[in-house]
Every structure is written in structure tokens, then in C-alpha cells.
Amino acid sequence: MERVVVSMQDPDQGVKTRSQRLFITVIPHTAAGGDVVAWLIRKYCISEEEALHLGTLLVQHGYLYSLREPRSLVLRPDDTPYRFQVRCRGSAIYLTKKNIRKQGALVGHEKEHYDQLHRKINHTWDLVVMQAREQLRAAKQRRKGDRLVIACQEQTYWLVNRPPPGVPSVLEQGPERSSCTAGGVQMTKNTEFYKQEMERCRKALTRARVKSSVCLEAYLKFSSQRGPHDPMMSGCLPSNPWVTDDDSYWTFNAPSVAVPTKLRVERWAFSFQELLEDPVGRGHFMDFLGTEFSAENLSFWEACEGLRHGEQAQVRAAVDAIYQQFLAPGAARWVNIDSRTMERTLEGLRQPHRYVLDEAQLHIYMLMKKDSYPRFLKSAAYRDLLAEAVVPPEAKRRVFPFMRKPPHANPSPALLPASHSGEPVTAASGPECGDGGT
Amino acid sequence: MATDGLHENQTLASLKSEAESLKGKLEEERAKLHDVELHQVAERVEALGQFVMKTRRTLKGHGNKVLCMDWCKDKRRIVSSSQDGKVIVWDSFTTNKEHAVTMPCTWVMACAYAPSGCAIACGGLDNKCSVYPLTFDKNENMAAKKKSVAMHTNYLSACSFTNSDMQILTASGDGTCALWDVESGQLLQSFHGHGADVLCLDLAPSETGNTFVSGGCDKKAMVWDMRSGQCVQAFETHESDINSVRYYPSGDAFASGSDDATCRLYDLRADREVAVYSKDSIIFGASSVDFSLSGRLLFAGYNDYTINVWDVLKGSRVSILFGHENRVSTLRVSPDGTAFCSGSWDHTLRVWA
């Protein structure tokens, strides 16, 4: 903010200032609110609304104060005169004057503030004391104009720094953070810390990187592919529930709806992950695998997900169950893993932990992704799904607002039967909401 | 290591300068493959049209600053937490409050909705992350079934369930992140490497689901392997605290919002910063960021009470949204991308669409 205010006060490029007539006194170096707004608009290429907002923030933080209504911390875009607050020095002078007047009898927080300021602007302290003395001495002869300015200045200062009860303070901060710049370091930057940093750098140096052009092209491709599926970019059919208060969009797109929408079925072709994350898509894929007698692959993958994201206490039992069902010789739903992976997996099973089946799981995942998934997308089953998919009709615009019904309530996922809460939930399955959304 | 003996007598200062020079070398390496800027590549892309988004819902009920919020997977319910210790679950579509719990601490800076929709997690100045099962039973006191899961040595700044209700990832002012088992409260993995408070985290949407990114007061964004606890990538281009990090929907990049008044985009494959979203007229810090579903738009809430909407590809600002009367502290796009919700120090939450 300092940067903005400094450039505003620039004698050549800054806001035009003039001597302003206020009642019968003349105040030098004032800027009209309207001029401040115009300057902000020009300098930062922003709209009037934004310039007004920024200007008001400057007033609220005490960088500018109004000469007409110092208690109103708003920037008025008219000829209301404003002046730039002299930061730090202004309040230092105020407190020094008080100190001198009351012979050092500043109250608690004022004394603290006084000391703080003293430390902060130590090098100009003599100047401050001099100015304070000068101001006090000249007080009686003070020109009405100066007195008015100083009164406004001080009023604004205290309004900003000590807001009356009930008024939010702009200077409020969140809980204290320790950061490098503040110097309040919680973590000792010991040799261990730097050694770790260097080790990370060394590893990073050997990392394989991809050319920027390749990476950035990928964003273009991703965004253009997903654009039609992004409600904020392309709208949604029948309508956006938040705009029309009609939640049919959610009914049409419920997690386990009987007939998915066209856009949804299209998304299954974007990536294997997209297909698996959708319970309806995953269900159809499982059916397809059944026709190819490889459904155990997907079941194995699901069981491994359950292990990875499941309860710590169940890890051993889960590993055992998976081994018995999918990996043991003669298992009921034996999965075909290459011998090297199988060997390493069996080795790891001696010390079961939640990641012990990661390699096997990845192998099966890649098998499905590279093999079964492309076949699924080319299959008649998928083609039929696309053909049968529904395209919701666009909601007719309601002409009369009072014809709108109040938004429907629907059952919270937390109300569902207990069977849902105990089991480890895999990525794709979500709460069964919106099905009965009437 | 063989070189340990050599380094034994080095002072802290020389270690620090060695680390700095290594970082410099890393930046040089990263620059070698940087053959084009994002906005150049994006010149071919059609500019976005007029952008109109309005507040569609205002949620009033918190008696103090709203600090955090999260969406339920059902696309309409949200959980929010505030400075006075209140945590509220709303059906934001109807604006009804469904649950409310008062934490025994103030400044509840983190809250999260469980994937099943049956529980919430929250924490703050109590240095803990607690999980509350959601119950509609009139006779049950929600606070009675509370589970204390995470224990840090400083405030909790962020928390998130992983792919299930069984695990929680936390970030803390004690400079670490940690992965916990909800049922037993056991620490499964801890992540050390930040040099100051960690303020935010986000899980990667990758298919092999094993990484997350965190941002901190040390101006670093770090990407972690959840299995090994190792930092696999780090980025240090911000000039101040990083308040928020969020993955790009494809998982190949993430955005960050910082007190230095900029948002930045980091690509994980190119291993570098690829875009900076800033404007001279934006002088207050960005507190929270999130992408629209297609990743074309980046929404960022700022400490100057506004929300700026950025065109991710072209790097320009699409729109500025006014409405909040104090800092915007939290912002999340809904799971189906139909709206986003912002929470503010003005005690309210707004849903925009």
C-alpha cells in the first residue's frame, strides 16, 4: 500500500493537489476524492467500482483522511477534500505532545505505543520532538486551518488504530505466524535442515524434466476437452440449480442414476481414472470385464484401494483376505501378475503393511488401462450407453419470479443406514443423495 | 555418507551459502527446458466472453470471522468454521443449518467434510484435529462422540480426509504435515522440510493417488510422497507466505495464493513456475484459490475483500467480484463445478454462480 500512496503523492505523476477552501479557512495540499478515483483508474487501468473500492481501503487503513467528515472512512468520488496521512510521524508527534503536556503521564497502551514508535523512527526522533514542541508552542496562535487539519488527522488516526467497540478494525490480524522475514523462527535452522535442503536440490538436479512447450500444450488440450463439461464455462442442462433454485440437474446427475447423461458417458472416454471414479461408469466397466472373464482384475484393484485407505487396525486382516481371494495358488479369483512382481509381493507379505500390495495393484491397473479400457471404449456396450444417454431439456425460463418454488430440501448423507459409515469408502463411491430429490 | 567427515567443521553460514548456490544451479537447470511462456501458447485460445457471476446464497449464522469451509460430495452441503470456535454444517442450497458444534478453542482455522458425508473434521488453536460423526439423533450430543485424531505442537492450519473417512492429512504451525489413522489416532507418516509454519495443503487427483502439496510461511510450496514421507519437489518463487495451494484438475500442476498479492501456477512435469497472476492494483494478499472444473478459471479470494477471477491460460483477470465486507478467508469450488463458496471475516459465507 505504501507504494501506491507514495506514487499518489509524486509531485509530477501523482494526484493533483490544491489549496482547498473549507468554510472560511484555506487548507493546502488537499486532493479531491473524485481526482483520487480518476488517478487510480488511469494508473492501474481499472474500473470505477474497483478504484472506489481501493480508494476506500486506503482511507480505512489511514493513508488518506477526509477534511469534511473525518469520522466517515469512505472515499467519496466528488470534490470532498482529502489529505495524505503522515504515517508513523503523525502519531509520534501526537503522543510526544501529550507526553510533554502531561509531563510523561501517558497511559499504559499509549506509553507502549510511544516506546514502540521511538524505537521505530529513532533516527528522526529529534525532529519529532522538535515538531511536537513547535506545535504546542504555536497552538495558541495556530491558524484555524492548521488546527482543523491536525484535528482531522488525529481523529482519523485514532479511528483506524483504536476503533470504537463494535466497529471492525482493519488492522486486525490472524493468529501470529512465524516466518523467515519476521525473524521469529520456530524451527532452528540447524545443520540438519540445510543438509536436507541440499540433498533435495541434488536429487532435483537429476530429475527428468519435460519441455515447457509440451506441458503447456497439455493445458490447452485439457481445458478445451473439459470446457463443455464445466458448468461455469458452458452452463448446464436443464439449468444451474444455484441460479434457478431448481435441483433437477442434481437428480439427472445423481451418483447412481439409472440412465446417465450424455456428457457423463462422454467423460468416461477422457481417461481411465474418470471412468473408475464414476460409480455408474465403473459398474458398466465391471459388466464388460465379466464378458471377457477378467472381472477379478477390477475386484482386486478395488480390494487394494480398500486396504490402502482403510483402518490401520484392519490392515493385517485385509491383506490376508486379499491374498486368499486373489493371489494364493488356486485362489477363487486368481489375478494374473507377472512372476517378478508376484515374487516381490509374496516377499513383502511377510511384513504386511498398507502399501504392501502397491506394486501388484499398479500392475493390474496398468493392464486394465492399456488393454481392457480401450476395448471397452470401442465395444458395442459403450456405444449403446452413449446412444441411450439422456440429454436433459433446457429449463424454460420462468417469466414470473413468484412462480418459483422454494429450493427442495433433500436427505443428508449422514441420515443413511449405518452400513455406509463403517466401511472404507473408495474414491468413486459417494453418498447416495439426490436420487429421491423430490 | 562419505562426505560427512569433510562437512563436520563447516559453520552454519557456509552450509547456508552452499544450499543457496545449489538452489541457484537448480533454477538454471529448470530454465534450460523453458522454451515458451504460457500466455504465448495461449494466444491461439479464444478469449473468454463477458463473465457474470453473482451471489446466489448468503449464509448468515456465524457470530465471528469465518476462517474455513469445505464442500460435501453431495454438491450442496458445506461445513464452515469460525474464530469463536463454532463449526456449522449447512445445506447451502436451502441455507438451513443442519448441525452446529462449539469447539473448546478459538480460531478454528481448518475444517473438512468426510467423503462419505457422515463426519466432519476441524481444528485450530487447540493444536489438534478432531473428527465429529454427524448425527441427527435429537438425544445425542455431537460433541460426545468427538474423536481427537491429530496432535501437533502448534496450531492446526489445514486438514483434509484422503480418499476415505479413515485417514486425515493435517498441516500445522509447527512446520510439519502429518497423516493420521482416524480410528486409532495413530500417526502414520509425518512430513518434515518446511522452515516455518505450514498454512495449507491439497491432495493430488492423480490415479495412483500418492502425493500432496503444501505451502508455508517459508514461501515454499512442497510436493510430498505420502508413502515415504519424502519431499519430491519444491518451489520457491513467492515473496511471502503461501496461504493456499490447489491442484489443477489434471493433476499436472498446482496454483498457489500468497501474501505477496500474486497467485502462481507451477507445472510438475516441467518442474517450474509457469505463470504469475498479478495486477498493480491488487496490493493485498491472496488468501485462498481454486480452479473451475475445466481448469480454465482460477478463483482467488483476497484480503482486500474481493474475489478476482483469472483466465488461467491467458494470464489475464476476467472479473472482480465485490460483496464481502471484510477479508475473504476461504474459497472452494463445488464438487460438480456449478458454483463456488467464499467465507469471510465479515461473518458470512456466499455461494456464487
Automatic annotation (TrEMBL), chain A:
Residues 271-386 form the RGS domain. Residues 404-438 are annotated as: Disordered. Gene3D superfamilies: 1.10.1240.60, Regulator of G-protein Signalling 4, domain 2, Transducin (heterotrimeric G protein), gamma chain, Winged helix-like DNA-binding domain superfamily/Winged helix DNA-binding domain. Signal peptide: none annotated. GO terms for molecular function: GTPase activator activity. SUPFAM superfamilies: Regulator of G-protein signaling, RGS, Transducin (heterotrimeric G protein), gamma chain, Winged helix' DNA-binding domain. Keywords: Signal transduction inhibitor. Residues 11-98 form the DEP domain. InterPro entries: DEP_dom (IPR000591), G-protein_gamma-like_dom (IPR015898), GGL_sf (IPR036284), RGS (IPR016137), RGS6/7/9/11 (IPR047016), RGS6/7/9/11_DHEX_sf (IPR047017), RGS_DHEX (IPR040759), RGS_sf (IPR036305). Pfam families: DEP, G-gamma, RGS, RGS_DHEX. One of its GO terms (biological process) is regulation of G protein-coupled receptor signaling pathway. GO terms for cellular component: cytoplasm; neuron projection; plasma membrane. This is Regulator of G-protein signaling 11 isoform X3. The gene is LOC111155988.
Automatic annotation (TrEMBL), chain B:
PANTHER family: GUANINE NUCLEOTIDE-BINDING PROTEIN BETA G PROTEIN BETA. Gene3D superfamilies: YVTN repeat-like/Quinoprotein amine dehydrogenase (2.130.10.10). This is Guanine nucleotide-binding protein subunit beta-5. Residues 12-39 form a coiled coil. Belongs to the WD repeat G protein beta family. One of its GO terms (biological process) is signal transduction. Keywords: Coiled coil, Repeat, Transducer, WD repeat. Component of a complex composed of RGS9 (isoform RGS9-1), GNB5 and RGS9BP; within this complex, the presence of GNB5 stabilizes both itself and RGS9 and increases RGS9 GTPase-activating protein (GAP) activity. Interacts with RGS7, forming the RGS7-GNB5 complex; within this complex, the presence of GNB5 increases RGS7 GTPase-activating protein (GAP) activity. Interacts with GPR158; promotes the GTPase activator activity of the RGS7-GNB5 complex in absence of glycine, in contrast GTPase activator activity of the RGS7-GNB5 complex is inhibited in presence of glycine. Interacts with RGS6. WD repeats lie at residues 59-91, 149-190, 191-234, 235-276, 288-320, 321-353. InterPro entries: G-protein_beta_1-5, WD40/YVTN_repeat-like_dom_sf, WD40_G-protein_beta-like, WD40_PAC1, WD40_repeat_CS, WD40_repeat_dom_sf, WD40_rpt. It comes from Enhydra lutris kenyoni. Pfam families: WD40_Gbeta. Enhances GTPase-activating protein (GAP) activity of regulator of G protein signaling (RGS) proteins, such as RGS7 and RGS9, hence involved in the termination of the signaling initiated by the G protein coupled receptors (GPCRs) by accelerating the GTP hydrolysis on the G-alpha subunits, thereby promoting their inactivation. Increases RGS7 GTPase-activating protein (GAP) activity, thereby regulating mood and cognition. Increases RGS9 GTPase-activating protein (GAP) activity, hence contributes to the deactivation of G protein signaling initiated by D(2) dopamine receptors. It comes from the Eukaryota.
